[in-house]
Fold:
Amino acid sequence: MCGIVGYTGKNQAINYLLDGLAALEYRGYDSAGVAIISPSRHLHVVKCQGRVEALRQRCDDANLVGSCGIGHTRWATHGAPADRNAHPHTDCSGSIAIVHNGIIENFEELRRSLRAEGHEFKSETDSEVIAHLFGDAWNGPAKGDMVGALRNTVARLEGSWAIAVICSDVPDQIVVTRCGSPLVVASTEDGAYAASDVIPLSSVTDHVVQLEDGDIALLEKDGGITVYDASGGEVTEPKGLDIDWDASMATLGGHSDFMGKEIAEQPEAIERLLKDRLGKHGIEMDELRMTREELSQVDRVYIIGCGTSYNVGLIAKTLIEHWARIFVSVEFASEFNYADVLVTDHTLCLIITQSGETADTLAAARRLKGMGCKIFAITNVLGSSAAREADGTLYVQAGPEVAVASTKAYTAQMVASALVALRLAFANGSMTPCDVEMIYRELRQVPDLIREIFNRSWQDKQAVPIFQDATSALYLGRGTNSTTAYEGALKMKEIAYVHAEAYPAGEMKHGPIALIEPGFPVLAVVPDDHVHDKTVSNIMESIARGAKVVAVATDGDEEVAQLCEQVLWVPKMDEYIVPIVAVVHLQMLARYVAKAKGLDVDKPRNLAKSVTVE
Ligand code: F6R
Structure:
């Protein structure tokens, strides 16, 4: 939700700012803007509704020159997507500019009191109060002191923020801080940089400094960065992080869109994750930071996630309950935070989050941590808040996921969950080393099975006409594959704007069947598993009412082939592996439908990839 960048150094700031914003655009793309201090010490702000490309055009026209600046790409929370609400925001003097990611919860009250003091507001955003508060501090108690002025400012804020500020009185400095929203800084020979995450920085450095909540950092033209902690003391050794993603991983590399690229990267991502995991103690997972004895005592697992990551949690539940025989509760983070929680002395909390920054998921984890639970994170983003706050972290190593709709992180997170389930099962004796090894070998087949699904992408293309003009569709599945249906429907909704409703197939007759009329599209996930025949009955019930059924079925299933309009075939495999492989058909189907409708598959409307507001 919103991306911010900053640069001060020897080069023209505009280049890094625009490229950095383009790399962060997945965090929001309602509007974008930059503020740059010119050599004659004037602050220039250029901003507009829409994408970074539109901003680039405006910046070209404005010919912005200057080596110190900040930028922002927005996902609207307070105030409609519009030029006036785009960041950066300025104070009344027009010499101070700020960018903000997060939510200022007490902005109404602050705005009222600032207005009463004579401040004039130009936007409807919560963020603009920051510019005015900073202006007051700069011209008052913290005169001439960027760090002091920012400290003074944040002392009055409630909510979450990552903030960067420039001021034309000190044309070479940027001051930044964070509280609950991500922010990293980097020092190079060319100058000092700031960004919401490592992706924009991977083209300029392989090492960044991670700020802790409450830290304030002063960035200077010679690349110098001084970090002060919340109490005002200088942090002599701020926490560093090596970036092992090279910049090309976040480029299209010959693909027409990131979603297509990321779907294609799934086999390699899973291979990386599984490499060298089988040891003499079953699954090697030092990342859990729990002894075998501690793991053997786990008697309850809470799994927390949102969206696609929640869907991973549903699969994880099945695997942990089936293999490790431990009771699991899967919770939407946003609901969990307001619900009763029942923990035992040995409850483990598993948070699943691609970005590691989802505000609701982090809040839920903090709540469980406060109750004494061990927190284990499955995440993709190195050094993310989830990774830093958890007791142990398993990185899924899928590489940067840029498309808003999650694909490679979903399958990699499912494999990671399977590893955790096997580790628990081995620790508590529910599985023998031999059983674990057998499943691990099945998992090792997944990359090739997914490659085989790619060979069958023509089947997904053929199914496009059935969904392209539909406004509604039902996605059905049973057991673990009800989750495949949920995830397939989520992809179809978010990128192709088809209202795809997923339902456990057996539940359909308790309501949703009323939707079916002749020609209504139904997608049924019906692989060769222990509930196959039951799902076939549900397909028949749909067909009897005129539905056009597209099935995901196992090679050789003549019965399903006879019944359905079309089949997306998957090879024969263990039924617990099917969800990781079958979903790839549904990712490709959603992408083809969206493309056929001429939609932007990487940046669907109203969405942002990293949801850092509750
Ligand atoms: C859907 C999607 C979202 C995310 C959700 C949680 O394709 O990407 O539903 O899964 O916003 O994000 P993370 O996993 O970063 O916590």
